[in-house]
Amino acid sequence: MLLDIRNLTILLRNETSYVQVCKNFDLMINDGEICSLVGSSGSGKSLIIKAIMGMYGHDMKVTVDYFKFRDMDLTNLSVSERRKILSKEVGIIFQEARASLDPELPIGVQMRASLNNSCFDDKWYRWPFWRFRAVNNILHKVGIKNTKPVLRSLPYQLSEVLCQKIIIAMALSRKPKLLIADSPISGMTSTSQVQILKLFHSYIENNNGTLLYITNDLGPASNLMDNIKMLYCGQIVESGPKEQVINSPHHPFTQSMINAIPEFNRQVKVKMKLDVLRGDPPEFTQTPIGCPLGPRCPHADRECNTMPPVVKTKNGFFRCYYPLNMEKENESK
Ligand SMILES: Nc1ncnc2c1ncn2[C@@H]1O[C@H](COP(=O)(O)OP(=O)(O)OP(=O)(O)O)[C@@H](O)[C@H]1O
Q1: Which of 47, 59, 185, 230, when mutated, tests ligand 1's pocket best, judged by the most ligand atoms within 8 Å of its CB?
Q2: How much is the pTM?
Q3: What sequence ranges are listed for the domain ABC transporter (predicted)?
Q4: 230 is a domain residue
Q5: Whose CA is nearest to atom 31 of ligand 1?
Q6: Distances (CA, A) of 217 to 37, 161, 185, 272, 303
Q7: Site to substitute for ligand 1 among 10, 15, 16, 46, most atoms within 8 A of C-beta
Q8: Is 44 helix (H, G, I), strand (E, B) or coil?
Q9: Which of 29, 76, 254, 286 has a CB 3.0–4.6 Å from the CB of 282, allowing a cystine?
């Protein structure tokens, strides 16, 4: 097991008190696995990553029962000690790409500085010329062909998508053991999306890496994933292998995310209603007691006012009193 986190809880400070934005969050990722954390916008995905990496200030309180990375038990370490250890082996692609770059340094300087010695097999290759070549190579891989003007530019002179590609290139060039990518392809053209997803795939294959892929869209990256965790209001509502979650989802939230994947072989009638959940996710200050999806769920009943227990499936679990597709689950038992 590469990463093993049990019972992560996050509290966020608002004007008067602390609000719980994530509870009972477990994350187990095996070596070489591609695990995806899928949730709608505002469900707490980025906060979870910041909590795991120890990248937060006094406005956030994080507790965890157990935290292990590789063979290191980090549970009782201070936030800064944990951050120091993880930053050496974990690469992060943050959602706000431009904000992750230094606004005052040209891209070329930042990229050359980001290459650590693990990027070079031999001391000789650490010379500036080889660093320059390595930067060019990795930029080509993310689809930036005309590298010279990009390397001379400051972040504000480039589009957000170009900054995204640069951040991806920088993260991959350091060959991290675990790569965390937070909505890395949002806003890109479909050609670029495919290119980046293929790049992630070959990175994992060739470097024995592991990927935690964060997204609010099950569509484009679903081919890449081994395991999926569905997050709603800071809680995992369903988890399991990709085929199991996508082919026979048990939680209505998972079903709604699958319904949101565009499909063009269905007949679309004029004024046909979209297959979406009613309403919007609640604010964290108004998360319902019981099942967080309750007020929006078409199957909800009185029982859903208490938190559904974890129901184990073949290789995963879900939390719902009225699960869908249980015939398939029972057949497989
Ligand atoms: N520092 C902060 N102080 C107060 N609220 C915050 C802070 N950071 C995030 N939030 C709020 O917490 C909620 C979860 O934010 P988060 O960025 O984790 O969502 P997300 O699931 O990553 O969404 P998206 O996919 O849109 O990025 C949001 O409602 C956001 O406004």
Answers
A1: 47
A2: 0.91
A3: 5-258
A4: no
A5: 42
A6: 10, 18, 10, 22, 30
A7: 46
A8: coil
A9: 286
